[in-house]
Design a protein that fits this description.
Number of helices: 2
Number of strands: 11
Strand content: 35-45%
Largest sheet: 5 strands, mixed
Shape: globular
Radius of gyration: 15 Å
């Protein structure tokens, strides 16, 4: 958990949280992000591989991470602004807390102002019209990695594909 004391905020204003990690197949993975909107409301975002659908209240949301790439090193980029806007219909201001719960290999956690280039060739594509950028040289991995971007469009596409066809 960063920061260790939840009363201290990170005040990270860049909208993309990038987790460099390798999650084995069949292992649960959870990320909790506490974001503040422009009205200074704290919004708690729970992303988990155990969730199968989207649920939310005015102050928190539970979102699935079943579309996450596993079994290899991945730059998992989470568009926090897209989630805050898509779920809470408010404007993102900053990230106050990041908590990761999993049995995985974690190399770095950093933020980016613009979306990194999405190199994941899966069927879920993010809905982002802004500029893109490459992962900073100081943060690149020497092993083959995939960059996967997750935003509300990707989450909704995954949830729709999980619904039984009638």
């Amino acid at each position: 958990q960063v920061p260790r004391d939840e009363r201290q905020g990170l005040c990270l204003t860049q909208q993309f949280v990038v987790l460099q990690l390798s999650v084995p197949l069949g292992v649960g993975f959870n990320v909790q992000i506490l974001a503040t909107d422009t009205l200074n409301n704290k919004r708690r975002i729970f992303l988990s591989s155990a969730h199968r659908d989207i649920s939310h209240t005015p102050l928190h949301t539970r979102l699935p991470l079943g579309m996450m790439t596993r079994g290899q090193w991945v730059n998992l980029a989470i568009n926090v602004s897209s989630i805050v806007t898509g779920v809470f219909t408010s404007t993102f201001k900053s990230i106050e807390l990041i908590c990761i719960s999993a049995s995985c290999k974690l190399r770095k956690v950093f933020t980016m102002r613009h979306q990194p280039h999405n190199t994941n060739t899966g069927i879920y594509s993010p809905n982002y019209d802004g500029p893109t950028e490459t992962i900073p040289k100081a943060c690149t991995l020497n092993v083959g990695t995939t960059t996967q971007v997750i935003d509300m469009a990707v989450i909704r596409q995954w949830v729709e594909n999980q619904q039984p066809k009638v």
